[in-house]
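Q: Given only this backbone (264 positions), what sequence would you predict?
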């Protein structure tokens, strides 16, 4: 298992900053990835690194042990060249003291998860400098569409973003607009939406609704915008059409969910 922490501007040994972490593990011919925003507290050997939100996850079936080992080797080499440092300590979900519970506030919103399809392969093909330019244009396009419908960016995670909207219509229209905007960059996204309650404490958001949104996005194919039944049931917009994608068991989520593809 290999873990890396993005150094960015924090080359000095300082405490109390937000960065990004990347985690990879190979089991036989399958490679497991995790990545996302982290908070770094402490310095030196006493440093603690915590995910600020549930990390994104991806499972890659390489077909053979040799192919999986080569994938891991190349992925680690790219992280080293992208200004990451090896991380020896574990990365945990932050645990809050019991007396912080009173600071948590309930919020109800539509949650959008977006990420780029085959981003690792595209980065390898384009090279570091060109991929950095593409990603800058990608995030500019995403944020432009968010601003147009007053969506709120919560966190960026590698090549993805989590955002919230006051209504399902705004979230769906933003997702479809992002899909079309980034195609001009030669990129394809997958997107998932779910409506539900989550808890907010300062800059942090927690709750099962976020996990469900992430799992819905993971079920989407390239170019698809998928929504949970919770989103579909709240809709009254006749201009948006859906196609039933069946009932799915979402990883780590207690019950099965019916998903719908946005067609209009």
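A: Predicted residues:
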């Amino acid at each position: 298992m290999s873990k890396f922490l993005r150094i960015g501007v924090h080359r000095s040994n300082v405490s109390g900053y937000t960065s990004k972490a990347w985690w990879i593990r190979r089991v036989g011919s399958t490679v497991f990835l995790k990545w996302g925003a982290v908070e770094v507290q402490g310095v030196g050997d006493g440093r603690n690194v915590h995910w600020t939100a549930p990390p994104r996850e991806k499972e890659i079936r390489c077909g053979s042990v040799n192919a999986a080992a080569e994938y891991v080797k190349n992925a680690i080499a790219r992280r080293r060249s992208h200004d990451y440092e090896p991380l020896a300590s574990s990365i945990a979900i932050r645990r809050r003291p019991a007396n912080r519970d009173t600071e948590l506030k309930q919020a109800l919103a539509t949650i959008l998860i977006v990420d780029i399809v085959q981003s690792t392969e595209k980065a390898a093909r384009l090279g570091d400098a060109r991929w950095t330019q593409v990603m800058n244009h990608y995030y500019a396009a995403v944020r432009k569409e968010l601003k147009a419908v007053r969506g709120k960016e919560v966190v960026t995670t590698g090549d993805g973003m989590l955002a919230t909207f006051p209504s399902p219509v705004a979230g769906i229209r933003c997702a479809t607009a992002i899909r079309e905007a980034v195609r001009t960059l030669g990129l394809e996204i997958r997107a998932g939406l779910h409506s539900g309650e989550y808890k907010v404490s300062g800059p942090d958001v927690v709750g099962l609704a976020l996990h469900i949104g992430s799992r819905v996005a993971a079920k989407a194919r390239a170019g698809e915008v998928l929504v949970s039944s919770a989103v579909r049931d709240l809709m009254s917009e006749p201009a948006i059409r859906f196609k039933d994608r069946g009932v799915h068991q979402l990883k780590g989520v207690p019950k099965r969910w019916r998903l719908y593809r946005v067609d209009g």
